[in-house]
Amino acid sequence: MAELVIAPDEKTESLASTRTTMIDCDIHNAPQSPESIRKYLPDRWQAHHKKYGMRNYVGSYYPRAVPNAARRDAWPPSGLPPGSDLDFLREQLLDEWGFEYGILNCLIGAGGQLNVEFGAAFARAVNDWQTAEWTDPEPRLRASIIVPYEAGDLAAEEIDRVAENPGFAQVLFAVRTSEPMGRRKYWPIYEAAERHHLPIGIHFGGAGGGPITGSGWPSHYIEDHGGMPQSFQPQIASLVYEGVFERFPNLDFVMIEGGFGWMPPLMWRLDRAWELMGDEIPQCTRRPSDVIREHVWLSTQPVEEPDHPEHFHQLLGQMDMNDRLVFSTDYPHWDFDAPDRCFPPGLDPEVKQNIMSENARRLYGL
């Protein structure tokens, strides 16, 4: 993220305001080693993991210049991988910035395993590891339920198994699924999430078996990273047009680490198409923009940074979703958004406070 230059008195004011209450909705915890998760697997699957490892579609690769996609200062003194040392995460993130709560999104690839039975076992192990080694010892943290999301029945079983644990806040997908997320194969997951009053988080990344951009395989990492919104937009179109929110009226989705500047033109386009051809989809009974504003939330990271700050405020007005934006840092990744530098000056204090904490408090029942 480009550095925002702030005058000393303005920066002090910004720090003071952001340190009131803050909730970070995208923290990436990671295992210290393969054994960290493997020890939570049954013997049968421990042997499988040792002998055959993980099998999933390959998405993008992080640049070698940025190992683990991490900030250079996010490597703990212990030498452990970034995001794997709870004490260091407390020190560098929770305590340093004064976060009241943090939502963990573990991106370990369990959800997209091609062997779905192993994926279900691995997801269970990851969730047990998160409980034992993250949320139980640190009450400020809430975890996302990892599920084998390409197998709806197995994913629903895992949601039912752990949903009543107060250490879990949402169900997690990667945005690149094997099919559009409005399809019936995913409905058992939505039914279980709605039953337990849990939102569905859809996070940057993944690989569903096809090219990772809408027009094929990119030549460069930057094409994938900068073009990630093209993965979020069709998922929203699928969820709305296939009537997911009519079938599951109490279900919310959270778009995580995809930015949000693309949302206004997407809503305009979906509305216009629905006005012209809505008779094709009688299951979609309301204007798409109304449905989106009622059921879709977005995390801020990476915050849009127009050259002219006033354009950022215009964007918020066009979205009309200030009550659906939740703050996130993306810790410990290299494009971390610092709370005191993520927004341009002039943001209404009430709007800012809602984005920094109160919207997430409502969304996750914190």
What does this 3D model show about the protein?
It is a single chain. Helices cover 41% and strands 10% of the residues. It has 366 residues and is α/β, with parallel strands linked by helices. It has one domain: Metal-dependent hydrolases (TIM Barrel, Alpha-Beta Barrel), CATH 3.20.20. Strands 1-2-3-4-5-6-7-8 form an eight-stranded parallel β-sheet. Helix 5 packs parallel to helix 6 and helix 6 runs parallel beside helix 7. The longest helix is centred in the middle third of the chain and has 20 residues. The N terminus is likely disordered.
Write the layout of secondary structure elements.
Layout: H1 8-18, E1 23-27, H2 34-38, H3 43-52, H4 86-97, E2 101-104, H5 116-135, E3 141-146, H6 152-162, E4 168-174, H7 187-195, E5 200-203, H8 221-226, H9 229-241, H10 244-247, E6 253-256, H11 263-277, H12 288-295, E7 296-299, H13 309-319, E8 325-326, H14 349-364
Parallel strand pairs: 1-2, 2-3, 3-4, 4-5, 5-6, 6-7, 7-8
CATH superfamily: Metal-dependent hydrolases
N- to C-terminal separation?
29 Å
Average pLDDT: 93
So what's the CATH class?
Alpha Beta
- In the CATH hierarchy, the third-tier topology is known as TIM Barrel
* Category by helix and strand content: alpha/beta
Gross geometry: globular
Largest sheet: 8 strands, parallel
State which percent range the strand residues make up.
Answer: 5-15%
> Helix count, per DSSP?
14
Q: What is the strand tally?
A: 8
SSE series: HEHHHEHEHEHEHHHEHHEHEH
Poorly predicted ranges (pLDDT <50, ≥5 residues)? 1-18
Q: Approximately how much helix is present in the residues?
A: 40-55%
Number of domains: 1
Widest β-sheet, arrangement of strands: 1-2-3-4-5-6-7-8
Q: Provide the gyration radius in Å.
A: 20 Å
CATH architecture: Alpha-Beta Barrel
